[in-house]
Structures are given as structure tokens and as C-alpha cells.
Amino acid sequence: MLIHRLILKRAAKAWKKAPGAAVPTICVGNITVGGTGKTPHTEMILRLLQEAGRSGLAVLSRGYKRKSKGFQTVQVDSTAAFAGDEPLQIKRKFPAVDVAVDKNRVEGCAKLVESGASLIVLDDAFQYKKLHASLNVVLVNSHRPIFEDRLLPFGRLRDLPSRIADADVVIVSKCPREMDAEEREEWRGKLRLREDMPLLFTTVEYEAPVPVWKEEADPRYIYSKTVILFSGIADDSALRAYLSDTYKIVEVLNFPDHHAYGRADMGRIAAAVRKYPTAALLTTEKDAVRVLDCKKVDDGVRKRLFAVPVKAAFVEESDAAAFAGILSRL
Q1: Buried (b) or exposed (e) across 268-281, using 16+ Cβ within 10 A?
Q2: Cα angle vertex 34, ends 33, 37, to 5°?
Q3: Stretch 92-116: mean pLDDT
């Protein structure tokens, strides 16, 4: 464990000395493995930038678990196997934004700049020691704070908790919709943040389910009182809690994070659909992107499968205004 800590400390020193890109960059990162909401926050940043009239926007991701190699441009009709599920999800929601994947963030940024990008959002680059972003936004899951966690493999920390001090903005994600000033200050103390560090709080907002296969879906299933839920995400507890307010969840199928669905998986899902003939079938947007890669999907699944869109939103209007001001200075 001591050797692991020394390696992480050296990586942090290298990161501090690393150069920036030729254009402003925003890193959306964390200190924990999964579960902080990087993709919804990346999408929130893109929405704010578009609302502010910014053009030349691009997103660069490594494209976790993709099968393609090197720098690749993500298209709306790309597959999750080619691009990775999250980059493809972002491209489909923001078709006007250039989305690319590259394990080498330095080369990836250079190629996006060559293509006309004037601002690049870096998905998960806080531990990438060869590039120092202009603005580092670090997320902390309110349900699993870093001060109550441990380094891998004994916990879910991928980096030293002290690295929170290297952030430019800290966002505590997945918060309750209401937080008082005392609670917010408690977080600052527990995270050991300096007084001038922007500390903001976001919550999760879910939207009405949308059909995965639009032409084949039967919208009547949305009005069912029962649902089958399947997902391959780090933590589905918030989604289950949200759905429980409206539906009776009759079966839950859990898969590994970023799981590539195959024939056997779709067989399990189809069996659940046959078991509950009146239930709707729900999943996440990220999972829906991966399911669409499957060549053979039961007609009953196609008819009943809906994705539940998720958004990150600030708990307080003052936080939203503060963050918009920070973005405007880039």
C-alpha cells in the first residue's frame, strides 16, 4: 500500500507540471472508481456552454471498453463497441458537438483543435498526468464521500483523497434536493477544502422514459403499474428509488458496469419479459446504447424497452450562477 501511495504521489506531481492544450479545456473527473455521475455532469456543462452561445465545442474521452484503437471521431450512427457507451450517448444527445475518443489525451486534443475545436471537455482526465486542464471539476458522490472511503483494492478510491485540493471546482453530486447552509459548510470541513475553493452541490433529475426502438415500441407500456429494471452501472440505487415512487419493480437484473450485452444476457431479459407480460422494461440511457449493438433482440423486448434519461442539476440557483460565471471566464 505504501508503494501504491508513492506511485500516486509521483503521478500527481507530474500532473501539476504537465502542459495544457492549445485551447481551453474542462476536465470532469473524480477520485472514486465510478458512481459520481461524470457523464450527466459533462452533458450539463455542454448545455450551459451552448446556452451561453459558445461554439466550437468538443468532447474527448478515452472510450472505455471500446474495441476501436487510437483516435476516432464518434458519429451519431456509431456503435457502442466502436466508440464506447458514454461518448456515443453524448454524441446522440449533442449532435452539433464534436465527440472523439483517444487514450492519448494530448494527441486527441491536438486533432480536435485541428478540426476546429475552440473548447474541449475532457471526460475523466483528472488522473491523466501528461495534460493539465484549464479547469478541473472534481465530483464527489454524496452517498460515498472520499473521507469515508479507502484506496483500491480495500475501497473505491482510485487516487489519494488529498488530491481534492488540486481541483478548481468541487461538486458534491447526487445530493438531496434541499440542503441548508450548515450542511454545505460541513462538507467543506470534511473534505478539508480551503475557503476560496468553489464547492457546489448537484442533485439527480430523471425525465420521462423514452423508447429505445422508437418505431417498434408500444407506448402503452409506459402506463403500466409494474416494471422490470435492468442495468449495468456502478450504482442503481437512486434509479430504483425514483422508479419505486411510480411503479412496482417486479424484477431487477444487474450487470457489470459498462457491460457489453450478448445473446445470453438478452435471453435473460426476454425471459423476464415473458414472465411479466404486462410490465414495462426499463433501463438507463447508457445501457440502451449498448443494447442497440445486439443483433438479435426479442420482439417483446423491442416493444417494451424504454430508457430513463438522467440529468445533473444544481441544488441552489446560486450554485448554477456561480458555475456559469466560472465557465464564462474560460
Answers
A1: ebbebbeebeebbb
A2: 140
A3: 98
Evaluate whether 204 touches 171 at the Cβ level (below 8 Å): no
Domain ranges of the chain: 2-204+313-328, 208-308
Helices 85-93, 38-51: inter-axial angle, 10-degree rounding: 30
User: For residues 104 and 8, is the Cβ–Cβ distance under 8 A?
Assistant: no
Q: How far apart are the first and last CA of the chain?
A: 38
**Which CATH fold topology does 2-204+313-328 show?**
Rossmann fold (3.40.50)
Q: Which helix (H) or strand (E) holds 102?
A: none
Burial of 54 (0-12, 13-18, 19+ CB in 10 A): middle
Say which residues have a Cβ less than 8 Å from residue 3's Cβ, sequence separation at least 6. Answer: none
Q: Would the pLDDT of 29 be above 80? A: yes
Residues 6+ apart with CB under 8 A from 223: none
What are φ and ψ of residue 12, in 5° steps? -65, -40
Q: Which amino acid is at 264?
A: A
Give tens-digit pLDDT for 288-304.
999 999 989 999 999 99
Distance between CA atoms of 285 and 310, rounded to whole angstroms? Answer: 8
- For residue 6, name the pLDDT band (cuts at 50, 70, 90): very high
pTM value?
Answer: 0.95
Q: Tens digits of per-residue pLDDT, 161-193?
A: 999 999 999 999 999 999 999 999 999 999 999
Q: What is the pLDDT of residue 133?
A: 98
What phi and psi, each to the nearest 5 degrees, are found at residue 231?
A: -165, 155
